[in-house]
Amino acid sequence: MLYFAILVSAVILYLVQMQLYKKLTAKGLSYRLRTDREEVRAGEDLYLYEELSNKKTLSLPFVKVNTDLPEGLKFHFTDRFEDGTTKETYEFGAQSIYVLRGYQKISRRWRITGTKRGSYLIGTSHIMTNDLFGMNPVSHAADSLEGYTPQRLTVLPPHYDLRKEFVTAQGMNGDIVSNKTRMTDPLLFAGTREYRMGDPMRSINWKSSAVHGRFMVNIEEPTVPFQFNIFLNTQSRTLEKDPEVPSAPDEIDRCITTAFALLERGVQAGISIRMMWNTAPKDSVQYDDTAAAVGLRPLGDDEIAARISTTAPCRTPEDVTAVGRVLAELPYRISVKEENLLDHMLSNPSLYTASDRYPGKAALIIVSTYFSERMLVFHRSMEARGVRVIYYIMTTYRNAQNIPDDIEVYYLSQLLDENGEEASA
């Protein structure tokens, strides 16, 4: 009889605590996430802080938190071994198990890495609690708990060393971006300096030479500061399976990284630059504030120009970062095909070469995964109009030997696959 009474009491206790935990577990349980930064460059780390609070007297003997990250972000773990070596691993998900006493708060810090450009919402977490006997798990979505707010994180295109990653077949091109041309104006000079071998005789300043007792030459100002605009071609092949979606998104990502690096480098050199791409403005960003920050708008009013996006001129590092946010959100969409795009450029060159400082004087840099026969014809036509066009293409020189050497083309120094190994285009 005693054993029966004990058994009945145990069953009653089990049922009471089961109902108690089912009813009260979620009450007073709060879950918060925050990051130490709102944006990073791809390849950089940041910290994600996870906070779990139990705002009631009832203790929670078992709380398991499963946190999943969106594609483009990964948890970064470092395993350290007794011999002093370390191993880096990356995972999309992480799991934590806690015991929460009444009115206790637990915080945990995770290191995460931005692996791919994009704008992400962090907060896909599931929390599982259990009773004293561990036999009645209850799952809670994080967004059903008090204090939950998903965190928006922007991963900008990665840092990219253009001088290391690209080469050109033209020996005349250097490694330094300057906002000055090579040509100078003999009517504009900013002082004198001592004559050097190779200086033209016409640049000698005879009065200054007489004063100093040696040949002095004028320091001539460049004729026109070098300006350029950047066009990002979102078409990845001359012929796409789907005319509105690029078939090689990884190569488009490389184009985006290259275009952003050119923008950074140019603005650092004091050049005012507009960026353009053949994805319609309405499809380019997820958030209106991102578009407003760069003055994103259609290139023009005609049918083609209305489907091409352009930014306001970028002059400061803040402008560059704002464009980076747009490029982070840019989807894989083609609004204008290559042949229509090039024909429009030929018909309306001023739309693409206009500069806010020197109207009609900006060169055009086209960043593309490929260089086609149509582009060659386009280049000759633009050259005849006096428009300088420069190309950055996502292939190596050995895979693009059919491009004439007089065209200013920058090639990848080597083509790497997803594992970092050299690959063919």
What does this 3D model show about the protein?
The protein has 425 residues and is an alpha+beta fold. It has three domains: 25-156, Sandwich (Immunoglobulin-like), CATH 2.60.40; 162-178 and 225-412, Rossmann fold; 184-222, no CATH class. It has helices at residues 2-24, 162-165, 206-212, 249-268, 281-284, 288-293, 317-329, 338-347, 349-353, 373-384; strands spanning 29-35, 39-41, 45-54, 60-68, 73-80, 86-91, 93-100, 104-114, 118-122, 124-130, 138-141, 151-156, 166-168, 184-194, 216-222, 228-232, 275-277, 297-298, 309-310, 363-368, 389-396, 409-412. Strand 16 (228-232), helix 4 and strand 17 (275-277) form a beta-alpha-beta unit. Helix 4 (249-268) runs antiparallel to helix 7 and helix 8 packs parallel to helix 10 (373-384). Residues 171-189 and 416-422 have low confidence and may be disordered.
Properties at a glance:
single chain; 425 residues; Immunoglobulin-like; Rossmann fold; eight-stranded mixed beta sheet; five-stranded antiparallel beta sheet; 10 helices; 22 strands; 24% helix
Brief synopsis:
By secondary structure, this protein is of the alpha+beta class.
Q: Give the CATH topology of the largest domain.
A: Rossmann fold
CATH architecture of the largest domain: 3-Layer(aba) Sandwich
Radius of gyration using CA atoms only: 31 Å
The count of strands amounts to 22
Shape: elongated
* Percent of residues in β-strands: 25-35%
- How far apart the termini lie comes to 83 Å
- The average pLDDT value, as a whole number, equals 85
**Biggest β-sheet: count, sense, barrel?**
8 strands, mixed
Total domains: 3
Which residues sit in consecutive blocks of at least 5 with pLDDT less than 50?
171-189, 416-422
Q: Order of strands across the biggest sheet?
A: 13-22-21-20-16-17-19-18
Helix content: 10-25%
What structural class should be given to the helix and strand makeup?
A: alpha+beta
How many alpha or pi helices? 10
CATH class of the largest domain: Alpha Beta
